[in-house]
Design brief:
The protein has four helices and no strands. The protein is an all-alpha fold. It has a domain of 63 residues. The radius of gyration is 15 Å and the shape is globular. It starts with a helix and ends with a helix.
Length: 104
């Protein structure tokens, strides 16, 4: 595992463990260009939820991020949304930049 992969995994684990902690003074809560304002409720049985959680943990992602990426990928496959890879790339780059800035 590369240093970057370890940093990202550690940050993801820390964020999941401390998701209810108050935001620090240097925290910026924005998603540039990605204002999400609609929430969909999806009913899953306990086995489906367990499978989703296991898959998300294996992927190193929160389940909601994984589900959202699947939906966006499916929409994109039908030619109706921006390039998901670019969106993810830009978000990961910003997260890495922030992590490196904080560790300096």
């Amino acid at each position: 595992m590369s240093d970057l992969e370890k940093l990202l995994r550690d940050e993801a684990e820390h964020a999941e463990t401390h998701q209810d902690a108050p935001a620090g003074p240097r925290t910026t809560a924005t998603r540039p260009g990605h204002a999400r304002s609609t929430v969909y409720s999806v009913r899953l049985n306990p086995d489906e939820v367990a499978a989703l959680q296991e898959y998300a943990e294996t992927a190193g992602l929160p389940a909601s991020t994984l589900v959202r990426s699947w939906i966006i990928e499916r929409i994109r496959a039908n030619g109706a949304t921006p390039d998901l890879r670019k969106i993810i790339h830009d978000e990961v780059q910003a997260a890495v930049r922030d992590a490196l800035r904080e560790s300096a």
